[in-house]
Structures are given as structure tokens and as C-alpha cells.
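Hi team,

Filling in the usual template for the complex we talked about on Friday. All components are listed, including any nucleic acid strands or ligand strings, so the model treats them as one assembly.

SUBMITTER: L.P.
PURPOSE: interface mapping
COMPONENTS: two
RESIDUES: 1412
SEQUENCES:
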Amino acid sequence: MKFNQKWLAGIYDSDKGEAPELFAASVPGNVQKDYADYKGIDIMFSDNVEALEAVEDVFWIYKTKLEFEAESGDYVFFVAEGIDYIFDIFLDGKKLHSQEGMYTKVELDITEKAKPGSELSVLIHPHPKRPGYHETPRQEADQSCKPPVSYEWDWNPRLLISGIWKPAYIETRKRGYISSCEPFYTLDSALKNAEVRFETVCDEKVVYTLFDPDGNVVYIGESPEFTVNKVKLWWCSGQGDPNLYKWAAESSSDKKEGFIGFRTIRMLCNPGTGGDPAGYPMSRYAAPVTIELNGRRIFAKGSNWVNPELYFGVITEERYEELIKAAVEANMNIFRLWGGAGIQKDEFYEICDRLGIMVWQEFMLACNNYVANPHYMAVLEREATSIIIHLRRHPSLVLWCGGNELFNSWSGMDDQSHALRLLNKLCYELDYDRPFFPTSPLTGMAHGGYTFYDRNTGKDVFGVFQNRRNTAYTEFGVPSAAGVNELKKIIPENELFPITKTKSWEKHHGFSAWGYDTWLCLETDRKLFGEPESLEQFVDRSQRMQAAGYKEIFEETRRQWPGCSMSINWCWCEPWITAANNSLVCYPMVLKPAYYAVKDSLRPVAASARVPKFDWSEGELFSCELWLLNDSNEPVSDTIRASLIIGGCEYELGEWKTGKAEPRTNIKGSALEFKMPKIEKTGFMTLKLITEKPGRSSEYELLCRA
Amino acid sequence: MKFNQKWLAGIYDSDKGEAPELFAASVPGNVQKDYADYKGIDIMFSDNVEALEAVEDVFWIYKTKLEFEAESGDYVFFVAEGIDYIFDIFLDGKKLHSQEGMYTKVELDITEKAKPGSELSVLIHPHPKRPGYHETPRQEADQSCKPPVSYEWDWNPRLLISGIWKPAYIETRKRGYISSCEPFYTLDSALKNAEVRFETVCDEKVVYTLFDPDGNVVYIGESPEFTVNKVKLWWCSGQGDPNLYKWAAESSSDKKEGFIGFRTIRMLCNPGTGGDPAGYPMSRYAAPVTIELNGRRIFAKGSNWVNPELYFGVITEERYEELIKAAVEANMNIFRLWGGAGIQKDEFYEICDRLGIMVWQEFMLACNNYVANPHYMAVLEREATSIIIHLRRHPSLVLWCGGNELFNSWSGMDDQSHALRLLNKLCYELDYDRPFFPTSPLTGMAHGGYTFYDRNTGKDVFGVFQNRRNTAYTEFGVPSAAGVNELKKIIPENELFPITKTKSWEKHHGFSAWGYDTWLCLETDRKLFGEPESLEQFVDRSQRMQAAGYKEIFEETRRQWPGCSMSINWCWCEPWITAANNSLVCYPMVLKPAYYAVKDSLRPVAASARVPKFDWSEGELFSCELWLLNDSNEPVSDTIRASLIIGGCEYELGEWKTGKAEPRTNIKGSALEFKMPKIEKTGFMTLKLITEKPGRSSEYELLCRA
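RESULT (copied from the run log):
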């Protein structure tokens, strides 16, 4: 039996040994949110979030007078599923436990020590920060197992949160309490039959029940090992149903439940990237980055997940569900859980299991050199162990990864880094069958760019991606401004237009985030279209550019299949309203125009045009190559008709009968050419591809320049 | 007290349960050698080695009537330090032990079971061979932890050996026996003082003594932990002295001894290979492959070690010593112990410690896909654990590596391969501070070519290597014929000249080894110089070509420092007399002309000429670039005068005052040009670089074409 508690929190004066001012605290939640609510601070607006920097380095205390009922013989436990980040737990003033690490569950037997009315308190220490000089705030996180993003990123404000971020409660336990219960399985080579084996810790016999995806009982009995015949496999979205078998383990006093998704997962080398070059010397090949799910090579298409709330502790199942559902509806099949964001709450993975979204989970390392000091290594080992054991049951989880961009120059880690060797070792020991990457990108893979026009070379995304042959594009972005409604929520009215570099715009990453106006692209907009006449016009142009850029990259990377096997943009959502960002979903749940463009580009079967560049002028010979993209597991064929619409006139470009595209195979078709007519005014033109069969037509906005 | 035994061996008839014919067996040794000696087979000559294929798949048995003296209270052990490869041990007909794996020591307590005169026998099972189709014999080794080279390589005949390859004896042990004793140490960051800690298993107190490299006692006492101040570091050859501290651990009845070499080792990224490219997307960097010894970046120059005997069990300390000493004299500082050859006997590592040769040790995986079947993984785990614990005490050992060319297409393993993840994990757990490579080559590194003219592109080694920018060249070769004296030992007299494809030449790899005449290069020789007039003339030209090729590659790779940090040719020695091979040392200990050329090229300080190609014709504009190579830890300068000697005439090319080359830094100097004069006859010309200071002058043989 679980008893939730009422909590108060406050700033703890460690000199005096007390918290002079207490306020109501939400558990799960973050104490900084409770404090801001108590003080009436709306961190979303303007530069208000800075108000919390004043209390960044304090101790916080949570207190509760315990409320629970225990029968004679019951064991009484205090359970906290996650406390962020360094903390002590006291019962009636006596220290019971100290810990560093937010991912390792706390379970304290307080049977003899606690009674209703006892005071339990949790003292949260200040955030760890590497002392000394560092170029960026995130470097303060380089010996910490907290999500580094809270230390500040170029789309996330500085906001170091902490507190009881997962459920915490008093639990009474009787004989028959099931301390742990986890199913494992082995599929035969034909993927037909599964040997299931439960590992259970309980002081009495347990009855196991397994239900198939239709709810029929396929096993009931006391044996923890049994065979399931003719299993329905778990598939990612677009390849089949995400079949789940519900299980229950029941003792006289307890019941645990969960799901099994039967599937196999491997990481294979990409065809065409492993061939021997002519002549010596020879180096090694690109790392294997093609997901093989149930023996089938899958093109992974999706997005980088970042925390959808600054106050991560308050996130709910509903928030997860709306965000993940939108990705399924956008024809995505994977989220990369970028290391900067750490690990999500349990509901995230449960929803991914249920909806068929594959999860690439990184450990909480990003863009730093995590040097292997003994204290850091001990915390990392304990936290990673907890994470692996906690998450390995999820069929959606297809890949462990050490963290983000650790082998790049701004991080400086490498294959010999002990932290990454430790993570590889732990994954091997605790989760043998799941692949492990030390970091992303690996050899052959690529991250970036993050702008429509490359910051170094000036090339547009069409030129950049059509000239690359990477095995996986696991980060790339095109920014846009937030919608007008969203901007009004964060920027004071008098600063909205004309847009200038005010503190509100800066705080929300419109300026001074990774360069002058990299995300807002004011200068680029001016160069292409001239001075915007209104905020509405600027936002419209910005969002259409983002849509055009993302459409090109997602389709080009699909066209490079099977040499390229992953296309995962930066990023999906955002933790608060940014003035401008690469996200497809504006906080909290506003779908940008680019979302719909990407949704179209990721349809299992779609007509696609390979246009060599974005920007076309009068008199130029416009050209494009037609493709039929097919990620589905069926053969398809179609007839595609192409036309260009410029200033209200439609010009026919030609038609292509595709012939048969084999399952999960694209085909390249006709190259079309057309002399650009006179252009009255610089603006967008539209390339239309109309298919004979429904649901496969495509439209592209390109620039026509007067 | 150890008691060596007299052994007999024979082929064991498993149907009858007996060995009808026994012969004297050497322990340590290989039973196939004993058998060949008994039968009078000289495997070196012609194709005689094939005679042993007839007994390849038999069971062999070793037998001995035990001879030892034990006092009352003594424990009696049978110890075998290594038995190759699957075996059972019987005492008076009763099975005591079964094992697969030649690197895990056997220690059997036979106190109650054995008495002098008891019969101890070791039954060796046939070699494991993967059944089914395979393209090459070596693929039979893909589930075996034997050195794969015995299954046949293109310079090693098929000769599957087995037997008691390391010492085996009866050992009587008293109270005070030291079962294990191993020193560990931690150096402070200034590399001045070391904390030493012994881990010892003994049932009584032990007294430890440590002597400095001059033989002075620096510690004596019962505490297994103590500090050594002002340590003299262990350095590789060319960088300092390979200082060793001798230790002894003594109990009432036993004494163990060994050496500590204090040093730190890391693997760093190569400068110039980690820079960010302009523009996105960005992939990862080259793997770190610069050895940092005691905080100093080292250019690793050396050779690939292969087993210097086909009958590996008979190799002696003297054989190791002469081979390793010759490498030190050739200015080398590293051996790569190629995975195909497995692990050497203890004496090898002891000599490397003593002479300052760094050791890159691979596990026994090469050019196969070692699939993670449970039986193979269990044997690999046990064997690798034994190897790591046995070898980690050696300061010369600077790198563990999973095996050879496992990430190349002909192998098909990759970062996800469980066998390599297991090895990484074991090295991490058992030998935390020593770097680990999953295989060679890694990203950025290169293997090959193995011929003077590239087999695919026809380019000479000058063109190939001057146009590569790899981080490490850890295999490259230029072949030559064996010397005339050696050829006479393996080829029947009537087949010696003119050279034709007879079975003797083929068996010794002159023909049909990796192509028609890839190692012998008869066709290339004919094309360059015309039909050879005698065996002597052919051998002379072949060996001079090898010398010229190796000289160019070693110096070019040195010139690429610090972008390139390793230059390790294929290969050092050979297991028998090959008719032609890339080795620098012909079996057993004949130094080829290329040996002396390489020795010159690897001098710590040397004048070097970068000549764009090998082959020059009359009237052409000859050009070369002068360099001063400096691997030493001192600044150097010199004046270099260059001349070209063609047909007896010496032509002055110019002079360069080098200026100062910083420690471990090369400098590039003048580019010189010269119009080639009339050439009477195609042959060698000599480019001479004369330095002002002694010992740095260089000579190059190049082709001048009439």
C-alpha cells in the first residue's frame, strides 16, 4: 500500500540549521518551480527566468509529517523513485541516507523508526559545478550526472533544477511483497517461439499470467519459465503493430504488472559503406548504424527529443502522450534521446512501447570531457547501472549511447575515455543484446548543419546534403521563429516589431545564441526577401523557409538509403517558448508549418523531387530529378506528373511512370528541365508532384528571384 | 620445489584406448615436432611439411611416470603453464581435468592421489575446425582461441600444432608457498614518487624487497604498501633507459621475484587530425593513436612480430633475445604482436621490458568473424582473463588490441561484435590504465600495401605513401626473395634457377600466395631490369628493391609526424624460410639488406630525402625535398649536402643549412632539382645526403632508366 505525503519546502539555512520560510511543494516536481510559484515569478515571460539564478546555489529542504497506516507485521518503507541530485534524508532529525544521483531509486526500511506524525525531510545540496575557468556554462557539468542542459544551452536558459522529481511515498509491505520482477525472453531463429523467463524476488510463491495482445491468456502458472508459441512481434510504427503482451505476477499480498514486446534488434553496417577501396593502404569502415528490427533493415526517421519542460519534474503522462503521438502521426519511427537531456520518466518509455516509436537512449553526457576522476566514475557507475536495469525491459529501446558529440573537438573524449568504456561494459553486462554506441556521431555519421545556409560555406541545405554521403544524419536543423501568438507570450508588446536585440529576445535565443541571430535569421530573411513589413510577415517567411529546408533534408537523406539509414532532425520539441529554434513543435504543443512538411516527407510512400538548389532566377534552366520513396514493406508503383507554379501560372514539367519499387527501396526516375520564365517579384514558387495513386503527391516551396 | 618430467608421446587410438607407438617428447614443445623428428621428416625442405597434414586430426597423448620427492606435509601439484589446445589430464587412468584453451595455466592438487611412479597423461584432442564451406583455411579458426596463423597464411604453411607448449612439472609446496604475488603502483602527477602495493596470496607473512635499477635496496619490509621516491622511469629505446626495479617477496619456504617498470601510458589523438572541418555536417575524428609515454608523445617505429618458429612450443629465450636485440639495434621502439600469432612465451615480454621495446599485444583473433556463440565466448573470456592478468605486470606492454583487421570486409566484425565488447570490458576491469583498441586499423589508421607497386593502381610506394595522410601505418610491406643460401635450404638444387612455379617454390610462398607471384615479384623484376641472368642477380635486385621501398615508407611516415604517429612494417621475422616475404629478418636470423636500410631510416636523427617517385629517365627533371628527421628528445641542427651518383659520376644537387629542429620535431628544407643526364643502362642510381655531423648521412637507391 502506497501513501503519498503532503510536502513543504524552503530554502535551508545551513548555518542556522533551519528553513525560515516554507511553502507548498509538489511531489513529483521541482523545488524551484514551487519557489517561483510561491514568489509569483512567471519565468516564461521576458527575462524573468534570471530571477531564479539568485537562489541557484542554496540548499533546499523538503519536509513532511508522515501519514500512513500500517498493520502489525507490516514493513514500512520510504521510497523515492528519483531525487535530483545530491541529498540527505532525515527522519525526526536523524540522517538515514545520503546519495548523489537522481536515477537511483531510494528505498529505506523505516519500520522500527517511523510512526505516523514522524517528520521526514530531504535536504537537497547545491548543484555540482566544476570550479575554475570554462568557456561555456555547460562545462560546469563535466563531473556531474545531472542532465547538462540545465546548465544552459543555446535554446535552453540557465535553470538549474532539483528536487523530488519522481514519485515518493511511504509504502507498507507484507509477506508476499514482490521486490522485483522482470521478464526476459529468447526468440528462436525463425522469430516464431519465445522462451520466457521471469526473475523475481519475493519471499513466497508467485503466479505468473501472460496475455497476448488481444487480451487472451497464453500462460498462467507458478513456473517462471515457459514457452510462448507463434508470438506476435513488436514492430515500430510503419512496419507493423507494436504488439505488447501484458504480464502480471501475483503473490498473496502483491501484484506487479508490465509488458513484453518480443523483438530482436541489431545494428548492421550500411551497404555501400563497407566496400574495399581500390589500392592500399586501407583504413577501417564506417560504424554499423542500420537498425535491423526482427531481421528487417529499417530506415530510422525521427527527431531528437529534448526535455519538453524546463521544470522537468512536473512533466505528466499527458504531455508525453501528445508529443509522442504527434511524432507517430508525422510518420516518424524513432526518437534520439539526446544525452544533454538525461533520462525521461517511466511514462515516456511506456508510451513509446505502446505507439511503436523506437528509442535511442543516451546517458547524461554531452559536449564535455568527462574526465575519469574516482568520485565521478563511482556515481556514473551506480547511476548507469540503475538506468540500464530500469529501462532494459522496454521493447522500444533499441540503442544505448554514451552521450552527445563526445568525440568532437569541443568535447575531447575518445575511444579510450574511461567513462565511455565503463558505459560500454555495463551495457554489455546488464543488457547483452542491445547495441551500444560510445557517442554520436561515429565514423561515417554526421551532425549538422543547423541553418538553411551553412554558416561557414554559405551553401544552402540542398547543396550541402546532396553532396554528402554519410551513413546517418542524426542531427540537422533548420530554424524558424515561433508563431506570433507564442512570441506575444514571451516578448513585451512594445518590443515585438520591428525586431531588435532586446533582453527578452536574447533570453529566448533570438539573438546571441550560437552567434548573432543564428536562430532568428533576420539578416538572411532581409537578404532574400527585403525588410519585413510586419511581425506576421517575418514569421510566415521564417516558418516557410524552415519547412522548405527540413523537407529537402529529410527527403534527400531518405534518397540516400540504404547508404544512409537514419534521418533524425534537431529537434522535436522545446522546454519553453523560444523566440526561434530548430524545433518542429513550439512549446508546449504548437505544431509549426515545418511539422506538416516533415510529416509529408516521411510518408511511407511519397513522390519526391531532387532539386539541386533552393534559389532560382529568371532565364535559368530549372532542373529536378523525380523519385519514388518507399519505406513501406510493400512493392509500390505510380505515375508522377510534375509542374511548377510561379506567380499564379502552372507550367507542366513532365511525367514519369515509376515502374516497381521493391519493399523498402526507393527508385530514381526522370530528370526534368525547364527554362525559368520572367519573375515579377522575388518570392516563393511551388513545385508540385501529382501521383496517380492517392496520398503520395508532394509540394515544394522554392525561391524564385526577380 | 619443481620436478621436470620425462615425457613420451604418441598418436592415441581412441577406439582402442591406447597409443600403440610412443616416442620421446620435449616439454615444453609441440608433439608434431617430436613426431616429425621421430619419423625423420625435415619440414623445412621442399614440400615436406605436407607430410604432417596426414596426422592433423588425430588425438595425441603425452605420458610420464612421475618423478619427485615430497616431504611429509608437502602439497603436491601438477602444474602446466600452457597446453595447446583441447585436452584432458589423467592420473593413473582417472580423469582429473579437462580444458579448452592454451593460455590458462593448469594447477592440479594431486597430493592425495599421486606418488612417484604414478602415470600422468595428457590427451590432446584434434584441433577445432569450423565445419562447412569456407573460402580460406584460416576461416576454420573462427571459433577457436588458438593462434589462427597455424591454419595457414600467405607466408605460413598449414601446420596445426599442439601439445605442452609451456613448462609443465610437479611442484611440491610447503606452508609459506606464495600462490601469487603482483605489484601495482600509482605515480604522482609529477611522475616523481610512486605508491607501490603488492597483492599477495600466501598463508604466512611475506617480506618484500625492492631494488633500484642500480641494485640498491630501496625498500625492505613486511608491509605490502610503501612509497618509492624519485623513481627512475621506464623508457622505451631511444627516449631513455628502460629502468627496472627488481622485487622479491620471500616467505619461510618460498620466494617470488619480478620487475617493476614505473611509467604512465596513454593514447592521444594525433594533432592535425582532430580539427573541425569548415562547414557541416561533421563526422567524428580519427581514433587516438599517439602513444604518450611518461607524458611524452612518442613516434612509434617498429615492426609486426610473427611467430619465429612454426613449432612455437620449442622457441627459446635465446631466439627471442637475438630477434628483439636486432630490433633495438635497428632503432625500433615497438613490436605489434599481430593477433594471428597469439601470445608469446613469458621470456618475450621480459626481454622487451629489459631492452625498452614497447609491445602492442593483440588477442588471438585475426581476419575472421568471431561470432559470439556461447561456447566460444566462454573460452575467450577465460583465456583473455588469464592473458591479461599474466601480462599486465610488464611495463613494455603499452596497448591491448582485440585482433587483426576485424573491421575490414574480409572479417565482417564491427563495434557491436560481442567478442570485442567482451575484450574491451575485461581489459577495463583487469587493467584499467592500459589503452584498448578493438582492432587495427581503426578510423584514420591504415594497413597496406604489401608490394613495391600497388596491386590495384600500379603506383610505386613513393606515390602511394606521399599521397596518404593516415594517423598510423601499422602494416605495410615490401617483399623480397630470401638470400641464396636460404633458398638452397628449401628448394631442390635443380629447381633453383631459372625460377619456375614448382611445388617447392609454391609451398614456400614464392608462387600462389596471395596472387601469382606477389611476394617473389618475378614479373616486376623482369619489367624493370630484364630477364635475370642468375639466381644471385635476381636475389640481389629483389633485396635492393625491398630496401629502397622500406626506406621510402619508413621515412615518409616519419615525415608525416605528428599527424602520423606510428610506422610499423609487415613484418619482422618469419616462422620458417620463405622463398620470398615482406620480412626484414629471414629465418632463423639472417638480416636482409632491407634490415640495414630500415635501421638507417630509423636513426633518431637522420637526413632524409623526399623523392616523388622511384623511377627516373634521361632528360627528366629530378627533384627531391630535404628533411631533417628528429625523433630524439634533443634539439638538433645540421648542414646537408645532396648529390646523385649515376654510372660512376657524382652530380652535386645542393646544400641546406637546416636551422634548429626542436626535440621530436622534423624540419622540412630545400627542394632541389636536377636535369637527369644520359643513362647508359637501366639500373640503380644513388642519392647521397651528407651531413656535417657524423652518423646522420643517408643514401637512397633509385631507378635510372635508359
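MY TAKE: The radius of gyration of chain B is 27 Å. Residues 154 and 515 of chain B are 10 Å apart (CA to CA).

Thanks, L.
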